[in-house]
Amino acid sequence: MSSPVKETETTVFLEDIDSNYKARKPEDDEQSASQSSQPGSSSSQEQKKAPNKRQRTIEDMFFGPKKAGAGPSKKAKLSGSQLTDTSPSKKITVTAPKTSGILKLNSIPFSLSDFKESLNEEQKRLLQLECEAMGKSWLKLLKDEITKGYFLSLKRFLWEEGVRGANDTPKSCRVYPPAKDIYAWSKSPLGKIKVVIIGQDPYHGAGQAHGLCFSVPLGIAVPPSLRNIYQELKAEYPEFEVPKHGNLTAWASNGVLLLNTCLTVRAADAGSHSNRGWEQFTDKVVDVVDRYGGANISSGTEDSDSNGVGRGVVFLAWGAWAAKRVEKLSTTKHLTLKSAHPSPFSANRGFIGNGHFKKANEWLESKYGPDGRVDWCNLDPAA
């Protein structure tokens, strides 16, 4: 008994959620065509009765129905902002809608399989982790960045440090956070970002770092800086119940991008991966947020042109290091709030009493309405 034919899947990321459709294999089409061409077959008779009746295909959705007599077309490749048919006889380009010269976020197509096919063998090896672990709403805008020379040099360095893919990095690797968590921040969909909190280095103690700045996994003691963050939050929102854990994933799920400037560190060696390329990469992440952060947050208006591109987010820059990362951002488009770092060494020199959490929500509500606010007081990891 022959095994059933497996269906292939192509994924096109048109929004911050994955939209899957199943693509039939060429042999399926050939078999179907063969059956329909047999004399006396039911499909042949149906075609004679209703020659114009046909199913609407995925290709029709993108390009419209074919003209009569048109030959079979090959699979369309998706790259950048264009959809291009690879038939030798024609080239079809679909131009995505733009707003003020910027492509709308939901109109930027991306095929992960096509991106992988465009890489050489070394790039496939070095960028395995990015393809596996980076959120696709981010990857479609950072795909060109991660193929640049500086980033590939960074990945060669990390390879020597023991970092591989999300699931095949050796347990003996002494780099934090674990490979699978390096891009945990990108699980917050780009179009839903409301606030960006910028950290510096991941925690360099065992089990502490998990890809979100200032946050630690459940079961790990709350770090001193985070205790000061909780203290400030309690002062601004008296109803806030200080949790016994330091896990901030609820914030990440609520549109808060918790981004370290440097995304990895060697165990017990603070700053050991600085100036290797992460700073340039996370600067690009900030640039992407500048363009598309909050693009899919409803403002309660019917003005479609106000959606699809970034209309502004809140940047919380605590400490001189973080302030430097946001100094070039527009202060008319974004709200940038700066203060001392929440570290015990500096918290009393401007962090405690800065009022940032309330100021952020007041600005967000004025920009996006009540739904734009962040529920800072909810730190339930299951939320």
TrEMBL record:
Signal peptide: none annotated. Keywords: DNA damage, DNA repair, Hydrolase, Mitochondrion, Nucleus. One of its GO terms (cellular component) is mitochondrion. Residues 1-92 are annotated as: Disordered. Residues 32-45, 64-81 have a biased composition (Low complexity). Its main location: mitochondrion. It is an enzyme of class 3 (hydrolase). CDD domains: UDG-F1-like. Residues 82-92 have a biased composition (Polar residues). Residues 186-364 form the Uracil-DNA glycosylase-like domain. It catalyses: Hydrolyzes single-stranded DNA or mismatched double-stranded DNA and polynucleotides, releasing free uracil. Belongs to the uracil-DNA glycosylase (UDG) superfamily. UNG family. Excises uracil residues from the DNA which can arise as a result of misincorporation of dUMP residues by DNA polymerase or due to deamination of cytosine. This is Uracil-DNA glycosylase. The lineage of its organism: Eukaryota, Fungi, Dikarya, Basidiomycota, Agaricomycotina.
